Fold this protein.
Amino acid sequence: MSRFRAFVSTLAIMCLLATSACASNPQSSDSKNADSTDSDADSAEPPKDPAWGEWMDLGDVGDTVGGANDEYVALLGETGPPHAVYDTSGNKVWDIPELSSEEPGKYSTYSSDELFIAEVKNGDLVGFNWADGSEKWRLNAKEVLPCDPGDDWMWRLVSRTFPNVDEESVIALTIFTSGAYETECASKGEVPGSIAFDPSTGEEKWRGPNVDVSRNAVEGHHSITGKYVYTTSGYGSAYQLNRTETGSGKTTYASFETSDESTVGFLREVSDKGFIVSGLGPDEYFEVDSWSDSPGGEPILTNPTDDYPIMYELHNSPGTGYVYGFEVGPDHHFDSALKYHLFNVTEPNASYISPNLTDYAMPQAPDYTDDQGGDTYDPYLGNDPIVPRDGKAPLIVLPWTKSKLAAFDYKTGKPVWTVDDGERADHTTYIPSMSEVVFRQKNRVVAVDALTGEEKWAEDFDKPVGVLDQAGAFLVATHDGESGATVSIRVIEK
């Protein structure tokens, strides 16, 4: 979440005594600054409200936002360089080295106020200074372990405000295998299932328990709340689940047994104690009522969830810290209409995941074709659709079949405000500092009041807006044209 700081200079102590008395007290404020006057305090400028600057056309540059703070933004190429950092004036500050990517546009990049953190081409994770690109720290998996894990490892930011670094975040090196591999680490047998580092310094904070990578299938996972790093380890249908607290490094344990040996590949939380494991077979569900201080114990039997058509998934709100459950799909296998499914919502300051499920009629969702991203839910969600409200459930802002856009009460599913004019709206993003929701409508970018839906501003472009993204103080719009993609940015000024 962007942080806007305003500093006001005032005089802490005014000497109201006679000159001789002031002179006799060397600790008084006036004795330190003999020229200070009441007018100095009166002339101090009050803090300015944040305001939008003018749109700037950057031309043909990287069109994927890799992170930002209030002064700089990282723009990355969809399939490779150019990657570069730009300032609030739209000037390129430094070139980012080639990054590692599993697929186009999917880079491991995170950001804090001080650092742009990215996995570079050789697999190292590097903390770059925003201002000049100098390296503050570098982590290499082979040196950290120390052995060569081959491709069986991953850097993960464990943060409630992913992809933004918060005060409790860690960078975790996690191991994942599908059994015995001919790697240096596999030949050693046991290696730490996870190792955590401070994202500000790159210093190691803790090591999780060792796991046998020579004979077990091992997978690393992380909590959506940023509170835990998980490791599953086992083979066949029997698995050990290790849960390590990101703050303390303390590990507790549970065991589970699946009904299908091909199930375990990916684990995700769905409540404070509920988990779903996914693999080649149907998803299976289990609950951990209590965690043990030592491995082993009676395994928990999982239950198939193939009667449920929606892939249950939790998401972060990077701007507010809410955790929410959201998916799009039919109510039942035989239904054709797409519905929004709003599951649990967890307050920003809560350390648990609420297990609440909705029991109201789900709003109907517009049907997106594949070329509009229907295979993902990006058009529906944008990058942060959650709007907090004092004393009330938050809003979630989504396209709707009855309006171009609607802000739904998360707990009731009822619309609170709508946008009824213009083209279909999507890519919704809440911007806390401006109390606005921004979204795209074909060639337009529009901002409305986050609590009322009243339009605050709109900008028309001569080319369609392909993607609308927001990070730090930057709003980024990409445009696809015959001559290629171009990028426009707008900056929140202090």
